[in-house]
DNA sequence: GAGAGCACTTGATTTGAATCAAAGTGCCCA
DNA sequence: TGGGCACTTTGATTCAAATCAAGTGCTCTC
């Protein structure tokens, strides 16, 4: 599907300048590489081809809030205004389909649907962070991620405990303790720290509210 | 501006059915009245004319998260999907301009901008709730509200301490204690519980991060 | 295969906000 | 004019999660 997967980001930039819209190129990003920063001009949007992306915001003292993770097939990078308010970075080795400004204008109808689901996700996440305890937050996170990976029983976490903590408004220690507790109750099982088997999906779902 | 301010909601519904789009009618709502509920079909959107509105979500055990407040001039009611995931209710005596489905289709470009700012607001709020302490949350709330009311030094709160608590992920007691503390430091002064003078705007802004 | 460097886990203690409880305060209406 | 009621404030105590502090285990390199 992505014939130009090995194409560099610089070439993608060039094509965009020449106003080609529909077809796009795929740019590779190493784990940890910044995709855009707060303050950068918004002139592209992205679709994850492989890998995973986090979008986050920082406070001056270093506190961080991850507002979203993006998995293969998902789009991100559109925001209100002309400059980014958030940072985006590749969590793992990632390939991104890059769309130019012209493409965004042509597809404003689809963009509306994406913006509305983005708003819904953020608002749902507000409920989780604002009104649920640590166990409920982690359970909701695992279920959400599982569904977005196709709903199977095995779950691969592309992100670290710190990323999860910054997404859920917790600390790594608390995330780790909750995972240990869920493992103790046999709700989940760990193959390794980043690979989770959901042993009792119903029990996990019951923990969300 | 709103010539038909006294028109009933039922008449507004009728006009919508007859496909009149651009001109709209204004419907009055008493304090506490529900505007729409979770599960309701999405077929209108609203602009606050006078008063104030809260949009919130409930957990089965009664915990509540207010995701947004809407003041005069602001629009709300558009969501992803075909049914509402949230409740909306008038906080005070409120008048709403009601727009029908046809109007929304015609103005999808403006709706995109609204959806993007809605997403940005929700994501900014995630940072506040996920990573800031009680004092920072209340300070951020007061500044946000103040700016949306025109940026003067006097601030009128249309909502109760409970509404504020449910918006900030706190309890009424904690909100009250923070307000008392800010009053003690002379950052703010209270004319009454719902009318606040911002005595030291810079000090308040400094508390946000 | 030894050792450095990370990510993750576990334990002890502290702490900020929740909870529980009891007053104020103001407002509506009889 | 005063009683009732909802909202707000204040105080005492508890508790969930943060912080502080070691470990453990894995991977990568030399």
Question: Topology of this structure?
Answer:
The structure is a homodimer of 209-residue chains.
Chain A: H1 9-17, E1 25-29, E2 34-36, E3 44-50, E4 53-58, E5 64-70, E6 75-76, E7 87-90, E8 94-100, H2 101-106, H3 108-131, H4 134-148, E9 154-156, H5 161-168, H6 172-184, E10 188-192, E11 195-198, H7 201-206
Antiparallel strand pairs in A: 1-8, 2-7, 3-6, 3-8, 4-5, 4-7, 9-11, 10-11
Chain A binds a DNA duplex (30 and 30 nucleotides) through helix 6.
Report the CATH superfamily of the largest domain in chain A: Jelly Rolls
- Beta percentage of chain A is 25-35%
Tell me which protein chains meet in the greatest interface and how many residues each side has.
Answer: A-B, 39 and 39 residues
Task: Give start-end ranges of low-pLDDT stretches of chain A.
Answer: 1-20
Q: Based on the structure, what is the oligomeric state of the protein chains?
A: homodimer
CATH architecture of the largest domain in chain A: Sandwich
Find the structural class of chain A using helix and strand composition.
alpha+beta
Largest sheet properties of chain A: 4 strands, antiparallel
Shape of chain A: globular
């Amino acid at each position: 599907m992505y014939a130009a997967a090995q194409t560099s980001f610089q070439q993608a930039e060039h094509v965009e300048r020449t106003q080609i819209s529909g077809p796009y190129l795929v740019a590779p990003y190493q784990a940890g590489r910044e995709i855009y920063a707060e303050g950068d001009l918004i002139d592209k949007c992205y679709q994850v081809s492989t890998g995973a992306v986090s979008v986050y915001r920082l406070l001056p003292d270093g506190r961080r809030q991850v507002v979203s993770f993006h998995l293969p097939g998902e789009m991100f990078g559109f925001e209100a205004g002309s400059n980014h308010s958030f940072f985006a970075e590749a969590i793992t080795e990632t390939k991104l389909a890059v769309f130019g400004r012209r493409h965004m204008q042509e597809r404003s109808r689809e963009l509306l649907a994406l913006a509305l689901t983005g708003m819904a996700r953020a608002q749902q996440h507000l409920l989780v962070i604002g009104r649920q305890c640590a166990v409920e937050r982690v359970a909701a996170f695992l279920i959400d991620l599982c569904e977005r990976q196709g709903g199977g029983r095995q779950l691969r976490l592309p992100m670290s405990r710190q990323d999860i903590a910054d997404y859920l408004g917790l600390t790594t220690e608390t995330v780790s303790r909750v995972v240990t507790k869920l493992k103790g109750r046999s709700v989940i099982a760990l193959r390794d720290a980043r690979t989770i088997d959901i042993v009792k999906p119903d029990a996990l779902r019951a923990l969300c509210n």
